[in-house]
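Consider the tokenized backbone below.
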């Protein structure tokens, strides 16, 4: 039994683990971090993805688990086409949010001499790393079952364990591009027709733990060397510019390279807001020993998983098409909301070691706090989450954990009525992985459910008043 793990890339100190099959299987893992990854998927010891390998004509079957809502189909795994940027859901295959991975069958349609299995993934956050176990089989055993579901041990139905792959690091979750190559020192892993990938999520802190798999290549030892995927077009001219903030403590890079038409707006209108508000948000959400990321990047992309903007670690990616349409409206405030995510760092994207028993992060708070800061501190005059806004919503049945603006309204109400320090206190606990419902009782003397009920009563009364006297709210 022998194991070889090599690693290259900028984050050279990462610890990677890779177990082996009973044979002499080698698992090589490589990582390009978010600054070095390119659409060409270039690695030092792992070949770039290929176009006409044995997987390109294979049949891919979803054995267990469900596809992510914005995920591409299974064909994305063997079409020889690659995503052109770090967060392109439709150009990858990934499992549905909230579930723990699933199982994929690859039927190569005939037994081949299996030389190599290479898997590739790309995502700026926790959906970058790969965690899976690979099984293989020639399909000839009498006990063979080609599609064992999650509760069936593959080895009990004819499958051989080939390798266990886990590219995660010991300290937090490094986003970026991963290449994994499974091979055998003897030249071939074995003679197989079927491969089974038992895929796990990379984390369960939130619903976004399922890896963005970009391509799976299977190399036949007896076939001609497959052709590599045609290199992506040359990089665009870099339009990014860095702005100092907080007296030089922070550097905010705004990168409109992929949306050149937004350059003027981004530098003249967005930059001053980010420069002023990033340090303000840091001050609003302090905690002992915590330093907010000193460098923040705001860039533009074509798709951000259906959101208008999304934050991973210290990178905010804005959906270009939505921004183009909202430059005079909500665009700046949207970035303020995302800047709060950069400061929150609830998912240890800043590299802090994750405590072993970190409590789950309620989504409504992770999103309610940014909207509270945005609508009640940054732009209260926009009335984006107050009674005026509530009144304009049709069929609104607000619940304190309704997330975004509704939860922002609730947080503002509790803050004003019970405790000025509520949001900073919630934030510290969420950031340190020790949030619990008790915090509400400690901060206000009431449980969150009681507060939610009281807030709802108040709100219903206010909305009713507004209905009868339309001008009573200003
Ligand atoms: Zn958000």
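A designed sequence for it:
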């Amino acid at each position: 039994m022998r194991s070889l793990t090599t690693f290259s890339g900028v984050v050279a100190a990462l610890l990677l683990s890779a177990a082996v099959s009973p044979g002499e299987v080698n698992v090589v893992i490589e990582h390009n971090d978010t600054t070095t990854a390119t659409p060409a998927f270039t690695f030092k010891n792992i070949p770039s993805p290929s176009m006409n390998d044995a997987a390109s004509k294979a049949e891919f079957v979803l054995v267990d688990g469900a596809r992510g809502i914005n995920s591409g189909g299974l064909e994305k795994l063997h079409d020889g086409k690659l995503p052109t940027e770090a967060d392109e859901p439709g150009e990858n295959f990934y499992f549905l949010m909230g579930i723990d991975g699933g199982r994929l069958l690859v039927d190569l349609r005939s037994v081949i001499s299996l030389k190599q299995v290479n898997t590739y993934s790309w995502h700026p956050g926790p959906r970058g790393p790969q965690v899976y176990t690979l099984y293989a089989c020639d399909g000839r055993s009498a006990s063979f079952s080609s599609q064992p579901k999650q509760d069936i041990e593959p080895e009990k139905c004819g499958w051989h364990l080939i390798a266990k792959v886990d590219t995660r690091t010991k300290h937090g979750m490094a986003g970026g591009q991963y290449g994994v190559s499974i091979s055998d020192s003897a030249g071939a892993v074995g003679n197989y027709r079927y491969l089974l990938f038992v895929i796990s999520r990379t984390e369960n802190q939130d619903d976004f733990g399922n890896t963005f798999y970009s391509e799976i290549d299977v190399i036949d030892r007896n076939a001609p060397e497959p052709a590599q995927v045609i290199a992506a077009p040359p990089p665009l001219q870099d339009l990014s510019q860095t702005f100092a903030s907080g007296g030089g403590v922070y550097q905010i890079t705004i990168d409109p390279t992929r949306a050149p038409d937004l350059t003027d707006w981004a530098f003249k209108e967005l930059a001053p807001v980010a420069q002023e508000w990033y340090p303000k948000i840091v001050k609003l959400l302090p905690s002992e020993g915590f330093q907010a990321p000193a460098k923040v990047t705001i860039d533009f992309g074509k798709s951000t998983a259906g959101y208008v903007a999304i934050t991973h670690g210290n990178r905010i990616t804005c959906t270009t098409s939505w921004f183009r349409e909202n430059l005079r409206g909500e665009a700046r405030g949207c970035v303020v909301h995302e800047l709060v995510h950069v400061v929150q760092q609830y998912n240890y994207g800043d590299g802090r070691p994750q405590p072993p028993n970190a409590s789950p992060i309620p989504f409504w708070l992770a999103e309610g706090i940014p909207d509270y800061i945005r609508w009640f501190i940054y732009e209260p005059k926009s009335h984006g989450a107050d009674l005026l806004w509530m009144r304009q919503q049709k069929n609104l049945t607000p619940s304190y954990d309704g997330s975004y603006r509704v939860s922002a309204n609730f947080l503002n109400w509790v803050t004003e009525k019970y405790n000025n320090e509520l949001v900073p206190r919630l934030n510290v606990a969420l950031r340190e992985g020790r949030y619990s419902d008790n915090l509400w009782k400690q901060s206000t003397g009431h449980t969150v459910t009681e507060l939610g009920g009281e807030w709802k009563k108040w709100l219903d009364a206010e909305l009713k008043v507004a209905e009868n006297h339309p001008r009573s709210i200003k």
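Residues 115 and 188 are 4 Å apart (CA to CA).
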